[in-house]
C-alpha cells in the first residue's frame, strides 16, 4: 500500500506540479502572478492563525489537525475500517465546523465591516 501511495504521489508530481512549473518558466508574468498568489495566501494564513490563537477555536483547530493526520496515517497503513470511519467524519466535518464556529464566524465578519469602509461604500 505504501508503494502505491508513492507511485500516486510521483504521478501527481509529474503530471501536475512539473507541468505547472514548466509553464511558469515559459512566461515571467505567470511567475510574478504565482509569487503574488503565494504571498497573499501566506499572509492570510498568518493573519488567521494570529486571530484564533489563544481562543477556543485554536484548541478545536489543533484537534481537527490531529484527526486529519490520523486519517492520513490510517490510509498509509491500510487500516480500512478506521480510515473509512475517519473519512466519513471528515465528510461531515465541514458542516460541523460551520455550526460549531458560527458565533466566531459572525463576530469575525462583523469586525471586518470597518466604519471607514462602510462610509466609502454607503455614504
What is the average of the pLDDT values? Answer: 76
Approximately how much helix is present in the residues? over 70%
Helix and strand sequence: HHHHHH
Globular, elongated, flat, extended or rod-shaped: what is the shape?
Answer: flat
How many domains? The number is 2
Q: What structural class do the secondary elements suggest?
A: mainly alpha
Radius of gyration: 20 Å
The amount of beta strand, in percent, is under 5%
Q: Work out the number of β strands.
A: 0
| N-end to C-end Cα span | 62 Å
Low-confidence stretches: none
Helix count, DSSP H or I runs of 4 or more residues? 6
Question: What characterizes the major β-sheet?
Answer: none
Q: Summary?
A:
The chain is 90% helix and 0% strand. It has 6 helices and no strands. The chain has helices at 2-26, 28-52, 56-76, 80-100, 102-112, 115-122.
Question: Secondary structure elements and their pairing?
Answer:
Blueprint: H1 2-26, H2 28-52, H3 56-76, H4 80-100, H5 102-112, H6 115-122
Helix pairs in contact: 1-2, 3-4
Q: What report would you give on this structure?
A:
With 123 residues, the chain is mainly α. The chain folds into two domains: 53 residues; 69 residues. 90% of the residues lie in helices and 0% in strands. The protein has six helices and no strands. It starts with a helix and ends with a helix.
